[in-house]
TrEMBL record:
It comes from Kineococcus radiotolerans. NCBIfam families: cognate_SipW (TIGR04088). It comes from the Bacteria. InterPro entries: Signal_pept_SipW-depend-type. This is Putative ribosomally synthesized peptide with SipW-like signal peptide.
Amino acid sequence: MTDPQTPSTPRGADLTNALDMPKLPARRAGLGRLRASSRWAKTRALLAGGLVLGVGGSVTLAAWTDTEWVWGGTDGAGDMATASFAIEQNVWNGTSGAAVWRDGADEANAGQLNFTVDAANLIPGKTVYAPMQLRTKAGSEAGSLQLNGAVLASGGSQTLFDALRYTVVTGVAKAACSATNFSLPTSLSARHVVEATLSTPATQPIPLAADGPSSAGNAVDVCFAITLPTTADNTTQDKTAKLFWKYDATLA
């Protein structure tokens, strides 16, 4: 039975006293609640970030990919390829003066122009002639040729070289390239060198059609004429000179 003189204890008061929890002032209690709220906000942000990273990672792993390749050919078949460009010469040195097409890429393989026999017995006022032909090789692209001035071979007479004059024309066939049949073409485009010193280059190039042997008429006739002028003095007697000419070919 309860002692009537002992005051009763409110419910829960004995638990508070047992824990001996200090009573915080109202301001400090408010700050504590703010700090707890801030920590919880940061925790939620980190959790949200983790969720986002998790979603992103799963999308990357699940992505499907594909590739496409192509290759370069020609008309649906064959590899890419380059064309060709090459020229060849005929100096009429076959049997009985027949045509022989050949390549003369350097001095050692140069074709010999067959001047008339008087070329070894020149006198002032004498002109000698030599025909030749030029064309592109089979399958070659079109191009043009530039004739350079002559070069005197080692041991030759510089005096004779300086005295001689030469003419080069195109469109004059073999039969017309001779002392009895030669005449200077009326077309200026066919006159490449006219009575110039041997070191003089041609004034214009020689055009060549593509695929030279494919059809008649693609070979270009060229006629050389060399003259010892009537003004040549005694210093040109008993002299010899071996002459080389070079054509520079260019793709059209």
